[in-house]
Design a protein that fits this description.
Layout: H1 14-30, H2 56-70, H3 74-86, H4 120-133, H5 140-154, H6 174-177, H7 187-195, H8 201-207, H9 238-245, H10 253-259, H11 267-276, H12 278-293
Helix pairs in contact: 1-12, 2-4, 2-5, 3-5, 8-11, 8-12, 11-12
Bound molecules: protoporphyrin IX containing FE and 2-acetamido-2-deoxy-beta-D-glucopyranose (2 copies).
Protoporphyrin IX containing FE binds at residues 8-9, 73, 76-77, 79-80, 83, 116, 118, 181-183, 190, 204, 207-210, 215-216, 218, 220.
């Protein structure tokens, strides 16, 4: 049986991670792997906070480490927040805004997020810790990007150097949020939604989670992840990954990215490629996560650094 792996939802052996780390990073920094085009026009930088908030990464990591002791599902939830942020108006923290009607209608209530997107209180905790250490410096959009990388890494996935320097938006986009990739979308619609943000089939396969049916079913029991050994991660294997992140369900992926009539000519070969070559998969996972984090960031003087991730700073009314 083919056992496809996904970047955002898998757990991998640490030894592989360490072995791969250095060159995966090189590939990522070069912005290209396996003939894939480099990310265009990114103004982000992995050293963005080196002078202004050198402990930013450590602070985010510490808050997540503490929080996941009581909420083992948290890393997965944080990865998903970055995804749902970046697909709407680019990675600008718009997902984090609460209702402030009539100006701000929160994206948290659209079907893809309602009772499903979670982890917001931990984002608040991260923001508080960062505001304490370096007030007004680290954006909420960058918090989500950092949290996603740290979460992939904590789950035993690859490491990479997160590109930073995003600023926070001051609006939400409900129409776009209502159009987030859906569980019910056929392959061609998912491909189109990814293409709209410059992500290709390879990214769809490396990132997508639709093939984890149980995990992708709203209302998966909270206790499903309880048995994780958080303090000393083991050498995780695919079985473990299947059990834990997919609520002990059998992976549905064999059917999903493989069975659509359009799959044979598009995603199916990629699924096979990743399933048979973890090295290939790992490097694509990193490249795709970086590409996703590069979707239309606000930089320079655009946007703002929110003081509170749930509210814009100056409402202007
Ligand atoms: C390709 C289109 C995608 C669809 C249709 C999809 C759909 C879903 C759905 C329905 C859930 C279940 C939410 C719940 O249990 O309430 C889910 C969970 C999740 N998704 Fe996706 N997803 C997609 C792509 C992605 C991508 C690109 C990422 C990461 C980069 C991602 C990461 C996750 C994670 C980590 C979870 C678990 C979240 C948690 O446990 O809180 N997904 N997804
Ligand atoms: C995603 O899963 C749902 C439910 O299993 C299915 O209806 C849909 O076609 C799947 N999407 C793809 C791209 O396979
Ligand atoms: C696996 O993928 C890597 C990176 O693309 C490549 O260098 C290597 O040759 C592949 N291994 C096999 C057995 O195909």
């Amino acid at each position: 049986m083919v056992r496809p792996m996904t970047c955002c939802t898998s757990i991998y052996g640490r030894f592989v991670v360490v072995f791969l780390f250095s060159w995966v990073r090189l590939l990522a920094l070069a912005g290209a792997a396996h003939g894939r085009p480099p990310v265009a026009g990114s103004a982000l930088s992995s050293t963005f906070y080196d002078a202004s908030c050198p402990r930013a990464h450590d602070i985010v990591r510490r808050v997540i480490q503490n929080a996941r002791v009581t909420d083992p599902r948290l890393p997965a939830s944080l990865i998903r927040l970055h995804f749902h942020d970046c697909f709407i108006n680019g990675c600008d923290g718009s997902l984090l805004l609460d209702d402030d009607l009539p100006t701000i209608q929160s994206e948290k209530h659209v079907p893809a997020n309602d009772n499903s997107a979670r982890g917001f209180p931990v984002v608040d905790d991260i923001k508080s810790a960062l505001e304490y250490a370096c007030p007004g410096i680290v954006s909420c959009a960058d918090i989500l990007a950092l949290a996603a990388e740290i979460s992939v890494e904590l789950a035993g996935g690859p490491h990479w150097r997160v590109l930073l320097g995003r600023r926070d938006g001051t609006t939400t986009n409900i129409e776009s949020a209502n159009n987030l990739p859906s569980f019910f979308d056929p392959l061609n619609v998912l491909q189109e939604k990814f293409r709209n943000v410059n992500l290709e089939d390879t990214d769809l396969v490396a990132l997508q989670c639709n093939f984890t049916r149980q995990n992708c079913t709203p209302g998966q029991p909270e206790g499903a992840l309880e048995n994780l050994d958080l303090a000393t991660p083991k050498l995780f294997d695919n079985e473990y990954y299947g059990n834990i992140l997919h609520g002990r369900a059998q992976l549905d992926s064999d059917q999903v990215m493989l069975s659509d009539p359009a799959a044979a000519a598009s995603t199916a070969p990629i699924v096979h490629r990743f399933a048979s070559n973890q090295t290939d998969f790992f490097s694509n996972c990193v490249v795709s996560m970086i590409k996703m984090g590069n979707i239309s960031p606000l930089t320079g003087k655009n946007g703002e650094i929110r003081k509170n991730c749930r509210r814009v700073n100056n409402k202007g009314y």
